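Pipeline run #58 for the internal structure catalog. This entry was flagged by the ingest filter as a single-chain record with no existing model, so it goes straight to prediction. Upstream metadata was stripped on purpose; only the residue string is passed forward. Reviewer on rotation: M.T. Logging verbosity set to normal.
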Amino acid sequence: MLNPIEEARFVELKNICLELKVQPPPEVFIHLQVHDKNGVLTFDDVQRGHSWTRNFYNLLLGTASNVGGDGTGTFGVGKMSGKKTSGAITSLTTRTPIALSGLILGSGFANNGITNTYGIVVGTVDTAFNANQFALAVIIPAGTAAGNFSYVAMAIPTQNYNSETKIWKGTLGRFFNNNSGGLITVKEIGLYWYGYMFNGSGDFMMERSVLSPVVDVVSGAQLTVTYEISGDFSAID
């Protein structure tokens, strides 16, 4: 559910950026739908995601400037490193040019089968967002046991450019089937990206949003999650 006051402030921020001829930061909208076992739509909501992580910003700077990590083996304020969803840290000081095939729209991000190790992922705990978080608080396992979702492979991402608004939009989507036999309540959602950061490959969380309202998925129902990530290029196009 979008907050009108917050949305007005985002419009104000975008206008200031455009006035300064600076491209605004990418925006995220998350569309959530639940269909019951008969295909009837029981939940339909759009929420704004505005919780890019430190991994995201460090990757952005590293990719743009080709800088290496700080070599400290630590992650957080004042550190240039990446932290995998496993907790391992990549911070090598040198950066060898490599093909970043997994970058956001890469095949490694999309074609990940039933695994919950990368792609769009969902969890059950509403711990407040912090930029230093590197994984969901409690991710929902992949499977059919109690408390598990059957993760459907990520859809191939699509992209679109609106020549009138000068906005590029990338769309990512995934289905989650509740074959667990019980109710599952989704309280958090995130983007796990597979690729290289500072010569270390692995799974990195780039975005995490705490949902409001939360999403109840009864047994036999299907959750559809769609991420729309857009960039306003009108400052340069």
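catalog note: The first strand starts at residue 27 and ends at 35.
catalog note: Residues 99-108 have pLDDT under 50 and may be disordered.
status: ready for reviewer M.T.
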